[in-house]
Amino acid sequence: MTEEKDKDEKEAFEKSSGKTYSLVEMVKAPLTMVDKGPDDSIFSFPIVAIWEAILFLGMMVFLIGFSLIKDAPLEELANPLITTDPAKAPWYFMGLQELLEHMHPFFAGVALPGALVVFLLLIPYLDQSKAGIGRWFTSERGKLITKWSSIYAMIVFPAFAVIDYFFPPREIFRDVFPSWVTQSLIPVTILVVLAFLPVFYVWKKGEGKATARELIIALFTVMIVAGFALTIIGFFFRGPGFEMFWPWDMPAGYSPLDNL
Amino acid sequence: MLRNNPLVQKLVNSSVWKSIFRHGWPDNPLDRSLIMTQNVFLHLHSVKVSKKSLKATYSFGLGLLTTFSFLELTLTGILLMFYYVPSVERAFVDIVELQTTVPFGQLLRNMHRWGAHLMVIAAVLHMVRVFFTGAYKKPREFNWIVGVILLLLTLGASFTGYLLPWDQLSFWAITVGTSIAGYAPVIGPPMQKILLGGAEVGQESLVRFYALHVMVIPTFLLLLISIHLWRVRKDGGMAASEISDENEAA
Question: Hey, which of A142, A245, B51, B203 would disulfide with A239, CB 3.0 to 4.6 Å?
């Protein structure tokens, strides 16, 4: 590997070095520098250091600017006797709170988010291929799968929330089925089917050639976009009584943005 | 050039300077290597990086942004600790006083609040980026796991901080949030009780959330962020550096 070093580097090392040893590394894994021409990389100092400093300063400027414009919310002193209406969790849990409206709390609050975390942890072991590392969406097919899964989830999950809100099976079938059917079986089955439909489509369409990566892209995209959509609905479209309203048309002077 | 300035010359040639920085002026490959390897902070980077991994539209700097917002939150958080007592009698009054009488107190609190939201958003987007660029694949599987845990810790840090102002917003948000944990079978109710220190949100909850927020979670965050960044190097830098291999093979 040493003969691959460019001339500048050689001279520099010889000039200032009284050392009797040299830096040699045994490489088994495909590391950054292996089998690469010298043009492929640059010294981290100073370019990377400067860009990082710029990013940090830019972030600070943004945060200070935003903090000058908008104050952090502070309501009345906490009072356990007076419930706020609506009572909302922090914004990043609004997707879960929205789910709570549609099914038994065990599934909305424990089973589904738990399954999501387990899925995230398993991703690198479900997809063992090395194809497309470092390339956005892996391939053109991957890009298409991401695009259509996003559009699909952006339509289907808000539709699920709205339809279930206006025609809740736990009310409609209250006297027909036991509560575990109406509160758990029906909504969870619908949600799981909706989540796996794109995966099934990719698998079917690929005629056995769809890679694990492609199937996982479909599932991951659906989960992320569904989480995003439900968070938006819970945060912006739920008002007093946790009923659905247009964000600009909330009753009683309630503004979703006050919950940040 | 700065380097030719006689004062700068004198400074960098002084024995004090040389006792701290064990490398020369970084204008040649050797000293540019040494400046990275001889500095505990800079050595989180490799000496050289792939040009591809520096492309802004590859990573969007989201991992850096998450780390930087953690630093910003640590700084503003330490300052906030000087003005805040986690008791149900004092907490809310302290926040009001911070905002009205402490110089730049409102700004300080705003920066901590918005910085926290920024960190959550940046961490989620960073995960999305890593997923879509396939950067979790071998040999980076374990670092993905560390990243998922870091995301959960980030949510935990934000959630525990949410209670501290002790206003109606924080009280009911935590009441709603922790009641979700209570729905887990068997372990749910005791978990909820351990977290709250009682049946409902009160003084014990405030102290527990405070300790978790300022000590426990940040310690684990710092530890895991260190492992996360170190593993990026050990796993061969950012995944973008492997793109050309793929193209050649194809």
Answer: A245
